[in-house]
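Lab notebook, bench 4. Still working through the backlog of constructs that have no structural model yet. Next entry is a single chain of 159 residues. Request: give me the structure tokens for it.
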Amino acid sequence: MFQVGDKVVYPMHGAGVIEAIEEQEVLGRRMRYYVMRLPINDMKVMLPCDHSQHAGLREVISEPALNHMLDVLRARQSLMSKNWNHRYRSNMEKIKSGNILELAEVVRNLAQREREKGLSTGERKMLDNARQILLSEIVLAKDLELDQANRFLDQALAQ
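Model written out:
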């Protein structure tokens, strides 16, 4: 169970801080909710406490894990399917997994592909979304402002 003040990641939405744990009635059922504030876009998200594990809610990565994620960002592009549909589905599964290393792999591969060949509109949108999720976790893990996290990510991808 998470506590108020914990820094957590909600896959497909990004990292945030639990601001409150509230009890609310929805469709005649009283449930407890984590109330999260996401630093990017200053968005508020409510997630039922009972469903948090199923939803993939996890703690923000530690410094050693962040260094491992940087290694993934700096590595060469991994083999991706030439078929756009297969590649898109594979990348979407990695993003939904909530695994920061798989998310970093998607950002790295799509960023490299964009530089080399360009991206379709769908993949460009996917890269932007994956990058925002990754940035939100970097912001909280390293206690940075968004522009600093952007520079940090760009430097890692350029190496």
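Notes after review: DSSP finds five helices and five strands in the chain. The chain has two domains: 7-59, 63-158. Flag for follow-up if needed.
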